[in-house]
Write a structure and sequence with these properties.
Order of helices and strands: HHHHHHHHHHHHHHHHHHHHHH
Structural class: mainly alpha
Strand content: under 5%
Length: about 475
Amino acid sequence: MTQQGIPAQVKQSTLETICYVCQETSLLVNHEVNNVIRAVLRGNLPSEPIGVRLAATKALLNVLGFAQANFGNEMECRLIMRVVYRAAMSQEVEIREVAFQCLVSIASKYYEVLGWPYGELFNITLKAINGDVHSVSLQAIAFWNSICDVEMELLQAHSDFIKYNIPHLIPILLESLEGEEGQEEDKVDAVMNIIPKLLSQILKKLGHTLDMQIDDGREKQQASSLCGLLQLIVEKLSGTDKTKHLVLQNADAIMTMLLRVLATSRGGGGGGEAMLATGALACATGPAFEKYVPELFKHLQAGLENFEECSITVVVVGDICRAIDDKILLPFCDQIMSLLLKNLQSDELPRSVKPLIFSCIRNIALAIGVHFSERYLTPILVEIMQGAAGEVCAQQSDEELRKSVLEAYSGILQGCGDAKAEVMMMPYAQYLLQFIDLNAQTAEGVVVQAAVAATGDLADALDKRQSSC
């Protein structure tokens, strides 16, 4: 390998022999390892034929287990990693696949050297996961799986690779689960194996951030980012039956951490993102979410009382209403409805929040059914008549508000469609028809659709003899 003019076939055979020797022996000493690495690096020169470079890369894979001293030397470490990176970007699939196998081995054996340069390493693996052939993509995923295993074993509260790369890695891995039908099951299995490990790392890092209790903008931003990742993971995994179980298995750990964030986030520090992640978890877990509601309620109440956080909290309350049983929701409804009505009547609340409140009221009406007509029907209808409808008439360009009021009517009518509710609705029927007619004449698109739907719901809710009014 060190002589000039040696035929390519001889070099390839030499490297293949070195590969076999390294695979079978456990007795290589330092100077022998140095000689092997020197031969391997020479065989990996871009000027060498494909067969030689492939044999050299395979030999490197088998000698890595003996190269602790070489990786301990910064110059030699950089040289070896540069060769591996170059092989990972080769035009030949077989060379790329073996190069990524080298990265997997280095990750498990010499984790501490991978910090140089982490940006280049991430870009190489990202490209492979995103668009390389299956065998190479699988090895790139296996690399990050090895990183997770090492870092979990080291119990590091924060790690460079997870800290810097999870925000970019998670979306790519989740996207790969949405591939075409019949995609390779082993790749799906690999992703589903690594996601829980990355989730564990996110929760660990978030807990470490909260434990530091530093009033620092960077720490607050990090908490926000991590909560945003939790929301993304929950939403993506709960979208299909094959991955939803991963959310259910980790729901307690996720919610425990989100409650910690909410408890320490007054005035910033991830509260909004934690609330959105909570809503995503409610949608994903359904009725099972009810066990978290008693502890969560104080944070919902605080969010509804804070105009800066109100919009997000209103959306999450709606998510929870759709998710849990009405018997669990009822004990909290009086306070929630009182705050929603109060906010509707406030001149300080941004107008953009009012459509969200009407949507939330609709969800509550659908969730608790006849209980809504018994407790809240009259005050809500009066508020809509006296307040919101007036704003709609004055601000006819606000389609979102008009649509949300009509949808609130529909939700109330659908949720309260019993005989008692019919009687209670009668005094407001004529007004509702006038409101519907106004919108049908002066609006278009989604507003007209909502007006037509409300008309049908009104006809269903009232006695058929009265529907002609």
